[in-house]
Amino acid sequence: MDLLPLYGLLFGVLIGLLTSLRLPVGYADYMAIGILAALDSVFGGLRAGLEGKFDGQIFLSGFFVNTLLAALLTYVGYKLGVDLLMGATVAFSIRLFTNVGIIRRYLVKRSSIQ
């Protein structure tokens, strides 16, 4: 059961490599911000799991809501002629690096105790 996320990741990569799905270039910004939002949620979930505070419902709702909100923010920005994509990218990047830093410190402290 502990390896289930790893199996899911490997399965997803394998499906991606075996299919020839091509998205139009116009969707590139939406995909990029969606992937960044999804990574933010994944690393936030990993952090919560290491801290013993993980809740599956919060993770799933955050994953989908963050991704959809980021895509919607990007769309509204394009309609208004404002580069809201950059703001969302900065916000998600800051959160992502913060979570990675906290995870790193947690793992270093845990390995030095043992």
Describe this structure in words.
The chain has helices spanning 4-18, 28-50, 56-80, 84-113. The protein is mostly helical. The protein has one domain (24-113). The protein is globular. The protein starts with a helix and ends with a helix. The mean pLDDT is 88.
Descriptive terms for the model:
4 helices, mainly alpha, 114 residues
Pairing-aware structural class of the strands and helices?
mainly alpha
Sheet having the most strands = none
Kindly, what is the distance between the CA atoms of the first and last residues, rounded to a whole number of angstroms? 24 Å
Silhouette = globular
Oligomer: single chain
> How many domains comprise the coordinates?
1
Poorly predicted parts? none
List the helices and strands and how they pair.
Blueprint: H1 4-18, H2 28-50, H3 56-80, H4 84-113
